[in-house]
Amino acid sequence: MKKLENKVAVITGGSGSIGKTTARLFLENGAKVLLVDLSEDALKNTVKELNSEQVKYCAADVSKADEVKKYVNEAAQLFGKIDVFFNNAGIEGTVKPITDYPEEVFDKVISVNIKGVWLGNKYVLPQMNDGGSIIMTSSVAGIRGFAGLSAYTASKHAVVGIMRCTAIEAAPRKIRVNSVHPSPVNNRMMRSIEETSSPGHGEEVKKQFEAAIPLGRYAEPIEIAQLVLFLASGDSQFITGTTQVIDGGMCAQ
To answer: Is the pLDDT of residue 201 over 80?
Structure first.
């Protein structure tokens, strides 16, 4: 039997590399999937690429309560109650010292990465089946500090606090809640961080990041997706309230 046979999953950040790769893995394992992201065009392209009758989309701004309610209601109307929520949407902001960091960028990062995550849990939980699973995307930046990434790092630390509170509150319903903490992933977000860190020298920044990872490379989106599938499935039925680090040994140093 497939790990998510007849389960309903909602994935925010659904057109990004981790969201899309996880959606494909969920579909292969029998799930019905609703993808959520800001850009309808990106969502349409992702759904076309996934090429499955079991995937739908809803364009929404995760930082706005009415739009979060919209995607939750859409999932319920399309597929029924939710079994798996991959609360994954996030933005990187920019790379600057705190003294130079633009306040408006800070506010945007906090709005999407903290409020968006909080709103997702707030409105998904009432529509979630008992025994379900919530997986929240944090980062190694939710465990340690990184110069120039104060807004992103603060937001990813906050995800851990929301995760732990939700895990305790949802436990009577046997709903498991965990966070995943990837090291740098080989995707668009890291290309942005590399280039913003040192314009014109992104490849050098990449090598510096890789040198800080004992396994010597970035994670691939499929490796994050495989961890998320484990946490979404019954294989993890006694795991809740945990920070699941997937970082090639980065935080061991």
So the answer is: no
